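seq:
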Amino acid sequence: MTLEITIKEASQLLKNHNISSHELDAEIILSNIMGIKRETLILNNNISVSKKILEKYKLAIKRRIKKEPVAYITGKKEFWSQDFVVSNATLVPRPETELIIYKIVDFFKNKRVSVLDIGTGTGCILLSILKELDFARGIGIDISKKAVQTARINSKNLKLEQRSKFKVFDIANFNVGKYDLIVSNPPYIPSNEIKNLSKDIRNHEPLLALRGGVDGLDLLKKVIYKSGSLLKKNGLLAIEIGNQQYLKVLNILKQQNFREISKEYDYNNNVRCIISTKIWYF
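struct:
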């Protein structure tokens, strides 16, 4: 069977199971199994597919039919133009999270920066920042041991292990060092909204990294409160927030003596990221 026919059949099968990105998913999964770029796959669609590859492909497509995210099937996800290893203990990196990095890079270009990434997951935020800022060093913390192991793999793959460390920590118990920058993409989905998430997310991504408590603000409050004692003077706090949370989070920041410096809107015109700094009275 040729590549073209193999992809068409898989794409149709995914389409029959209401997967809107059926063609793209079919191509990404097969290119990953074959160890070639998707573009190469498309340009050489008359090549025959071996029986061994076909068997692996069928199993992978069955996983996708069950709404398992493509990133978990391939074991990786592109973020900030780099491939990041993902595991079932980490969220799949999302394009809107890149918004936080654009702004940070502008603020700290050519400066020596110490960074703390709270709830690091794959390490994609911290490691992408370090890729752009040659004089930056950082630490990523997460309560999930498996997430920390995944972040360490990514650090090694990106040759950033000399400038990054990853540790298992609950933010409530973390008191190590002072930082020029604290970044966090904490869980911010209200508990009663978890059931409304797509099956891809609800049934496969770690709920621990999604649940933000009754109003979705439990972890955001902890991050903001703790950052007050961990930030250097004039340091920045950059946090990702959920839809319709901007005014509530802004109020929490003000209560903890933080002043907004900048905000970033996502592709649906929701405020997705707030950058703030601590107000010092002495």
